Amino acid sequence: MKLELRSNLSSGEHGVPFTVYTVGMEQQNAISRLEGFSAHQLLITASGKGRVHLMDQNKWDSIAENTVLYIPAGFPNEYVPVAEGDWLVAFVSFHGSAIARASWGLEDAPAAIPVRSVTRLLQLVERIWRHSGADYDSWAASELLFALLTELRKQSAEEPNPTALLRPVPETSRSLTVLKAAKFMQDYMHRDISIAHLAEQVGYSQKQLTRLFLRTFQTTPLQYLRHVRLTAGQLLLETNESMTISQIARHVGMDPTYFTREFRRSYGVVPGEYRLIKAREAQEAARSGNAPRRP
């Protein structure tokens, strides 16, 4: 099957997150784009094999059947068939914001996404094609693009390794992962948090997550969690006189004995002494009219 290139030059006129720019299906020839393409691309291998070269790397990556190649706009690249005339590719290019793309797992780095079958994806490409070009229906084409992205997300989620990145994850994505993990620790410090489970949830190994924490916070995930718990305990000691030391320890997810030992290691005094010191400081500040100072 072949679908000649159809383009929608007015694809940015209506207010949806994604709009179709070009669509088609053909035997892929060698392409070299030193400045990248002006829109984001999805290249669906229907049959045959190809190779892709990202201009910032000194290697070529193979693209086999049942693989979707995602290349973000403006990313320099080149791709070629392994054998001339033996790489059948369906393609859809689209415009969309970074936020919208990120919500679908399409970041600012290329990715080779293995899928179970391209049959449904190719059917959706053909339907997008029928609503493009001279018969362009912007709403219908965008709706079908969402259906294509949904099917891609569904199938890639079923794979053991859903998104095989062709290049290292960009620093912004790494930072976002660490911040999500850190926020989770803050939200659920009172629970028994397993770093192994946390790493699995954000898609990294424990070793990778530890490396990212060291780079971002100059501490390991376990040390960061300890800091979060002790800081929360310190605040509760100062602001909630009705809670016992044991209650505070359990509230922040620590055994009371362990909490006392670690608190002393960090602040130089045990929690009970700290509470008395802060109470005296508050009384003195009240008498002098000055606000108490926190360490």
UniProtKB/TrEMBL annotation:
It comes from Paenibacillus arenilitoris. InterPro entries: AraC-bd, AraC_XylS_family_regulators, Homeodomain-like_sf, HTH-like, HTH_AraC. GO terms for molecular function: DNA-binding transcription factor activity; sequence-specific DNA binding. Keywords: DNA-binding, Transcription, Transcription regulation. Residues 179-277 form the HTH araC/xylS-type domain. This is Helix-turn-helix transcriptional regulator. SMART domains: HTH_ARAC. Gene3D superfamilies: Homeodomain-like. Pfam families: AraC_binding, HTH_18. The keyword Repeat does not apply. The keyword Transcription regulation applies.
